[in-house]
Write a structure and sequence with these properties.
Blueprint lengths: L1 E2 L12 H10 L5 H21 L6 E2 L7 H8 L16 H9 L9 E3 L6 E3 L14 H13 L4 E5 L1 H7 L8 H22 L3 E5 L9 H17 L4 E5 L8 H5 L5 E5 L6 H9 L6 E7 L9 H12 L7 E5 L18 H5 L4 H15 L7 H15 L7 H8 L12 H12 L16 H11 L5 H22 L16 H4 L3 E4 L6 E4 L2 E3 L3 E7 L6 H9 L6 E5 L1 H6 L2 E2 L5 H21 L4 E5 L14 H16 L7 E6 L8 H6 L4 E4 L5 H10 L5 E5 L11 H14 L5 E4 L9 H28 L1
Helix pairs in contact: 1-2, 5-7, 7-8, 11-13, 17-18, 22-23, 25-26, 26-27
Bound molecules: glutamine and zinc ion.
C-alpha cells in the first residue's frame, strides 16, 4: 500500500504564513520578499511530507488566502465592483476580493462544510470565465523543479466549486458547467503534458445530501473529462461524510475514488463491503482522522484496512487522512509545556504523516518492522486513557444517573413569564445588551500584565472592578433595563471557562486557520469535565452590588464550548457535552444562590455543529438542546434564563431553538433583517425574543430611524409583549464612544416605540 496526503496546513509551525500576510498588508514587506517567504513555507511543507515518508504528496493546496478564492481568480471570476483589467489577477485584486478595499466591499465568506474554516464565496455574475493562469500546473512544476518531487496537484472539483458559488439561478447551473468544462479540461491537459500522472480532484459536495439532478450533472462533468482529457488520471476525492449514492459515485469514469472512513459513521465501509469497489480504480482510504488531534488507534486502523483488502487489492489502496490536514495544527512536538501523558497522545499534522507512513508499511505486510512503533502508539493512548484526568468518579456517576437529572424546568414558559414579570416589573420592550463592552487596549494590557505576573491578583481585580463600575454607571445613565457586567475579565468566551474547568488543556502552538490570516487555537478537552469553584460569581455579584437594576450573569453554553474545542475521542461528543452542561449547572446554581436573578447562557455555535446530512440534524439537535437544558433547568421559576445566538439562519431550526426553553433569546438580525423576520411569519415564537436592532460589526453609529424601522419590522410579526431591544451581539470589538452613542439611540428609539406600541400591547 502507498501512503498519501490530501493537503497540508499553510500556516507554518509558528504561524509564519500569517505573519507574512499581515506584514505584506501593512506595507512592511515588499511584494518580492513576500512571494519569497511564501515560497519558502510552501516548499518547506512539501519537504516535510517527503521526509515523513509520504508517497503521494499534494501540491497546489497552498494558498495566499483561500483555495476557493484561488480557483475563482484562476478563472478570472472577479466581481465587477473590483477594478480588474483581465488576465492573471494581481495580489491587489486578489486581496481586495478577500478583504475589501476603498472602492468595493469584500466578497462574502462562509463556513467550509461543517468545519471552522471559512472560504471566500465566488460570485459568478457579470464576467465570462477564462483560464488566467494554470495554478495547479505552476505548483506541480515548482515542486518538480525545485525539489525534484513529483507531487499530485489538487484541483477544486468543478461541481463543488459551482455549488459553493453564488450569483446565478438554479436554471443557469447547466450553462455554467458548460462554460467551465473546457477550462478545467485545459488545466488537466496541460498538467498531463507537463508529466503529471495523477490529479486530486476534490469534490466534497459528494458527501452532502444530493438530489438526482446533482448526480446527473456530476456524471456529465466526469464523462466530459473522460472524453476530453488524456494522459492524466483523476483521483476523485470526497470527505467529511459518507457518500450517499455510493454506487453512482464509484461508477464515475475516473481512475480513483477517495473516501472518508473516519467521519462517515461506518457507512462508507458498509457500502464498499456491500457493493464492492471497481477493479480498475484506486481507493483513497481516508483512515487517519484529518480533523481530530489524537494519535490514532493504529491497531483498529489496520483492521479497517484489512477489511478493505477483502474487496480492494493492496496495490490499489492509498492510506490517507480523511481530509486535508489543513484542519489540524502543525506539530505536537512543540508542545513542551503540556503534561507528557497528554502530549504523547497528540497527533497534529506532522505526527499524522508519520502514522500514515507507518500504516502503509504495516498494512503492506511489513508489520514486524514497525511493531515497536505500533506498540508505542498503543501505549501513548492507553496512558492517557488510564490517567486520573479520565477517572473523575463523581462526573462518571452523574453521567450514569443522567436519566434522573432534571432537564426541564418545573413551570412552563408562560407561567414563568408571569412569575418573572412580577419580580422584575420590566417596561414594555425592555432594553439590554449581549454581554461584552469594549475591550480597550487598556483592558488588554492589564490582562497581559496580570498574566505575566507583573500585576498581583489584587491589582488586576481592582482594575476589573473599576471597569465594571464605569460601565454600570454608563448603563444607569443610558437607562437600560437589564445590565451586564461587561466581561472585562475575559479574553475569549471559551478559553475563559476552559481555564477554570477540569479536563481542559491549552496548547502553545495549536493554531488552525479559521479564515485568511486569522487562526484560532481551540482548547483541548482531554479529561472529564468538572467544576470545583465558581467562575463568574465574584464579578457578577460585584456588578449587582452597584445597582438595583438586574445584572445578567453571563456564561458560555455547553454546546458552544464543545464545538469550539478539540474533543477527546474516547467518548461521544454528546456525552462530553453533558459533562460540560452539568459543570455549568453548578455555576448557574451558584450565581442564583448569590442573588443573581437573570442568567444568560450563550450558544452562538449550536448551528455550526449541525451535521452535513439533513437526516442527522434531529439527533444532533436533540442532544444539543438536552445539554443546554441540563445546564439551565434547576434554577427557580423566578430566575430568568437568557440565551444568545450569532446568526440569523433561523428558519430551519426554529423548533430546536424554541425547545431550549430559554425565557429570553437574543439573535443577530440586522445584517439580514428581512430573512429572519420572514421566518416568524411561518412560525410563532412564544417566548421572550430580542432581534438585534443594529449591526455591531461596524463602527458606524446607526441613525435612530434605522433602529426604529428595525423595531417596526420586527413587531409586524412578533408580539410587542415578548419583544426585547438589544444590539446584534457583544460590543467587545467596539470603541467606548461609538458604543455609548449607539446605545443611546437604541434607548431613544425604544422610548418612541413604547408610545407607539403601548396601546397595541395592552389590547393583547
Ligand atoms: N456574551 C458574549 C459577548 O457579548 C456573546 C458573544 C457571542 O455570542 N459571540 O461578547
Ligand atoms: Zn453574538
Amino acid at each position: 500500500m502507498k501512503s498519501g496526503n490530501l493537503g497540508y496546513p499553510r500556516i507554518g509551525s509558528d504561524r509564519q504564513w500569517k505573519k507574512a500576510l499581515e506584514a505584506y498588508w501593512a506595507g512592511k514587506l515588499e511584494e518580492a520578499s513576500f512571494h519569497q517567504e511564501l515560497k519558502r513555507i510552501r516548499l518547506e511543507n512539501i519537504k516535510t511530507q517527503q521526509e515523513k515518508g509520504i508517497d503521494i504528496i499534494p501540491v497546489g493546496d497552498f494558498t495566499y488566502y483561500d483555495h476557493i478564492l484561488d480557483t475563482a481568480t484562476m478563472f478570472g471570476l472577479v466581481p465587477e465592483r473590483f477594478s480588474y483589467a483581465g488576465g492573471k489577477p494581481g495580489l491587489d485584486v486578489y486581496y481586495a476580493m478577500a478583504r475589501g478595499n476603498k472602492e468595493a466591499t469584500a466578497c462574502e465568506m462562509t463556513k467550509w462544510f461543517n468545519t471552522n474554516y471559512h472560504y471566500i464565496v465566488p460570485e459568478l455574475q457579470g464576467r465570462e470565465p477564462q483560464l488566467t493562469t494554470n495554478r495547479p500546473l505552476e505548483a506541480y512544476l515548482e515542486a518538480k523543479n525545485e525539489l525534484g518531487i513529483e507531487g499530485r496537484p489538487v484541483v477544486v472539483g468543478l461541481y463543488t466549486f459551482l455549488k459553493l458559488s453564488k450569483g446565478y439561478d438554479a436554471n443557469e447551473l447547466g450553462a455554467w458547467i458548460e462554460r467551465l468544462l473546457p477550462l478545467y479540461a485545459k488545466v488537466l491537459n496541460e498538467l498531463a503534458e507537463a508529466g503529471a500522472q495523477w490529479v486530486q480532484m476534490d469534490e466534497p459536495i459528494l458527501a452532502t445530501t444530493l438530489a438526482e439532478e446533482d448526480l446527473r450533472q456530476i456524471a456529465r462533468i466526469y464523462a466530459y473529462f473522460a472524453a476530453e482529457v488524456s494522459g492524466v488520471k483523476l483521483q476523485l476525492q470526497t470527505y467529511f461524510e459518507a457518500v450517499d449514492h455510493y454506487e453512482a459515485v464509484v461508477a464515475l469514469p475516473v481512475d480513483g475514488i477517495g473516501l472518508d472512513f473516519v467521519h462517515d459513521g461506518g457507512r462508507n465501509l458498509a457500502a464498499v463491503q456491500q457493493y464492492g469497489f471497481p477493479q480498475d480504480k484506486v481507493l483513497g482510504a481516508g483512515v487517519i482522522d484529518g480533523r481530530g488531534i489524537w494519535k490514532a488507534d493504529l491497531q483498529s486502523k489496520l483492521e479497517l484496512l484489512e477489511q478493505l483488502r477483502g474487496t480492494v487489492s493492496p496495490e490499489r489502496i492509498i492510506v490517507q487522512p480523511s481530509n486535508s490536514l489543513l484542519h489540524v495544527p502543525v506539530s505536537a512536538a512543540q508542545e513542551k509545556a503540556l503534561d507528557p501523558v497528554l502530549r504523547n497522545a497528540l497527533a497534529f499534522a506532522e505526527e499524522k504523516l508519520v502514522e500514515l507512513a507507518l500504516l502503509a508499511k504495516a498494512a503492506g505486510d511489513d508489520r514486524d518492522s514497525v511493531a515497536a512503533e505500533l506498540a508505542e502508539a498503543k501505549r501513548s493512548r492507553e496512558q492517557l486513557q488510564q490517567s486520573p484526568a479520565r477517572a473523575l468518579h463523581k462526573v462518571h456517576a452523574r453521567i450514569a444517573g443522567l436519566a434522573s437529572e432534571p432537564s426541564s424546568r418545573p413551570a412552563d414558559a408562560a407561567a414563568r413569564r408571569d412569575i418573572q414579570q412580577k419580580r422584575w416589573n420590566l417596561p414594555l420592550l425592555p432594553t439590554t445588551t449581549i454581554g461584552s463592552f469594549p475591550q480597550t487596549p487598556e483592558v488588554r494590557s492589564a490582562r497581559l500584565k496580570w498574566r505575566k505576573g507583573e500585576w498581583s491578583e489584587q491589582q488586576y481585580e481592582t482594575f476589573i472592578n473599576e471597569q465594571i463600575k464605569t460601565w454600570i454607571d454608563i448603563q444607569t445613565e443610558l437607562e437600560l433595563d437589564v445590565f451586564v457586567h461587561g466581561e472585562f475579565e475575559r479574553n475569549d468566551m471559551v478559553e475563559f471557562f476552559g481555564e477554570k474547568l477540569d479536563g481542559f488543556a491549552f496548547t502553545a502552538y495549536g493554531w488552525v486557520q479559521s479564515y485568511g490570516s486569522r487562526c484560532v487555537k481551540p482548547p483541548v478537552i482531554y479529561g472529564d469535565v468538572e467544576l470545583n469553584a465558581p467562575m463568574t460569581v465574584t464579578e457578577t455579584v460585584y456588578a449587582q452590588s452597584l445597582t438595583k437594576v438586574p445584572v445578567k450573569g453571563m456564561l458560555t453554553g455547553p454546546v458552544t464550548i464543545l464545538n469550539w474545542s478539540f474533543v477527546r475521542d474516547d467518548k461521544s461528543r454528546e456525552e462530553v457535552a453533558y459533562q460540560i452542561a452539568l459543570a455549568l449547572r453548578d455555576e448557574l446554581e451558584w450565581l442564583e444562590e448569590a442573588g443573581i436573578g437573570m442568567i444568560q447562557v450563550d450558544e452562538p455555535a449550536i448551528r455550526e455543529g449541525l451535521p452535513l446530512k439533513k437526516e442527522q440534524w434531529p439527533a444532533y439537535l436533540e442532544w444539543a438542546v438536552r445539554a443546554f437544558k441540563l445546564s439551565t433547568s434547576t434554577v427557580k421559576d423566578e430566575t430568568q434564563i437568557h440565551t444568545h445566538m450569532c446568526y440569523s439562519e433561523f428558519h430551519d431550526m426554529i423548533e430546536a431553538i424554541s425547545a431550549l426553553d430559554a425565557d429570553v433569546i437574543s439573535i443577530e438580525t440586522s445584517r439580514s433583517h428581512g430573512e429572519l423576520i420572514a421566518s416568524f411569519e411561518e412560525h410563532t415564537y412564544d417566548k421572550g425574543i430580542g432581534l438585534g436592532v443594529y449591526d455591531i460589526h461596524s463602527p458606524r453609529v446607526p441613525a435612530i430611524e434605522e433602529i426604529s424601522s428595525m423595531i417596526d419590522r420586527a413587531l409586524r410579526v412578533l408580539d410587542p409583549e415578548l419583544f426585547w431591544i438589544n444590539p446584534d451581539c457583544g460590543l467587545k470589538t467596539r470603541k467606548q464612544e461609538e458604543t455609548v452613542a449607539a446605545l443611546r439611540l437604541m434607548v431613544d428609539a425604544t422610548k418612541l416605540a413604547r408610545e407607539k406600541y403601548a396601546a397595541l400591547a395592552s389590547k393583547g
